[in-house]
Specification:
Strand content: 5-15%
Family: In the C-terminal section; belongs to the class-I pyridoxal-phosphate-dependent aminotransferase family.
Number of helices: 17
Pfam family, one: Aminotran_1_2
Keywords: Aminotransferase, DNA-binding, Pyridoxal phosphate, Transcription, Transcription regulation, Transferase
Organism: Desulfosporosinus nitroreducens
Strand order of the largest sheet: 4-10-9-8-7-5-6
Structural class: alpha/beta
Largest sheet: 7 strands, mixed
GO molecular function: transaminase activity
Amino acid sequence: MDISKYLNSTELDTFNKQPLYLQISLLIADKIQKQIFPSGTKLPPERELADLFAVSRTTAINAYRKLEQQGLVWTKVGSGTYVAQARDLESLSEVPWPQLFTAYPQNPLASILRDLVSTNTPGTISLAAGMPDPALYPLETFTELFNRNIGTVPPADFGHIPTEGYYPLRRAIAAMLSEKGIPASTENILTLSGSQQGIYLLSKVLLEPGDYVVMETPTFIGAIQVFQAAGARVLSLPYSEKFSIELLEDFLIRYRPKLLYIIPTYQNPTGRVMPEQERKDLIKLAKRHRLVIVEDDPYSDLCYGEQPPQALKSMDSYGGVVYLGTFSKILFPGLRTGYLAGPPVLINRLALEKQFIDLHSSNIAQWLVTMFLNEGKLAEHLTKVRREYKKRRDTMAKALQRLCVKEIDFTVPEGGFYFWCKLKQAGTSQQLLQAAAKNRISFVPGEAFHTVPTPDKEFRLCFTTHNETVLLESVQRLAKTLTQITKKNKDNDAPPCSVWPII
């Protein structure tokens, strides 16, 4: 949980007669009592808390001491300050809910997906969530389609439908995939409540605790969390300009993993595109070992230059590639409509699992997307958003080059949503994020995308959510933050002491 998100939006009242330490303690106590900070939550270190509220470290220490006196927190020397176990459960709830919950991974980043899509603090520019711009949602087209066709649709289409999905949409998706070189029919398609549901269903159907899964690192946060929650043991393929076929083959021989999860086109978060020859080599290796490949492809329609190679699924000669797609990135996330393409035996098993979750995805959303596809509206919309997002990418790249190039390295993606950046100087992306909050800008630190602990120098910026004016302002705020943190790190670099202390 990103605690700073819940604290940095509150400013202390310097004219209040209450001491600043007491204002801070009351603020934290309120969030503990409302269980926004549940038992066991690690609170920010004293120095970090002081920075969040722009107070002295002594004030932060006194705030924690007050909370400790109230029995709301406890301090472990060398580890930090934690929210205490509730002593008077009746004061919080008639039922001791936390004691009834099943075990859940105690990961400090466990809530990051929920945090990314939650409402932003007013005045803050968020470059965190991978969101298309709401101003570009094709709402007028959907409204016109709805009004023109609602009287002609059979009422039964809005009753219960097969768990596999609305048949006309599955047929339209199969046709769309066939145009991309992916042979498919309706029996190969399962519609989903967003492609994230597909990852979850695959984990339920294919994985048992202790099974091995291979993933690139860094990679999509949601996939990491789903596989870890399933109890899988993750084998990491470190990011490089060339996909490590040799390391993957070593994993296949040593561990016999159940599947490989990969985003080969405009990878999240790095933006990398796997070249065609690497794709062919991967398919050849996977076929030899009968490896299941989960190809997640949310961004390939959003190219701003040379067309990327064909999907891995189009090269699938052994029936082992499972293809995930979504309309969230190219239309709008609120549709909650994605799809999975795979062999019929897998589709049937996934549908059996899906029925326990939602029985079937939303009929109305599927019906609307069907009309959008069948009337040829997608090509026109993609032309519009590609043109606009390319301008935004170029605007942000020029601004980063002009204002931030001394402090960060970054890659300019050929498609997708993201810049992947790395700090050149001392400090971490977490420190940068906390400092950036004061300048009303947010992003995702790199550690969220890694399957194992890593030097925290990287961070991801989304360039599609805001227009060019806002993007320019966001880079100016980032540049200001980088200057501040660089100066602070220099000020903290004291020369080494040449005198031994007296013991």
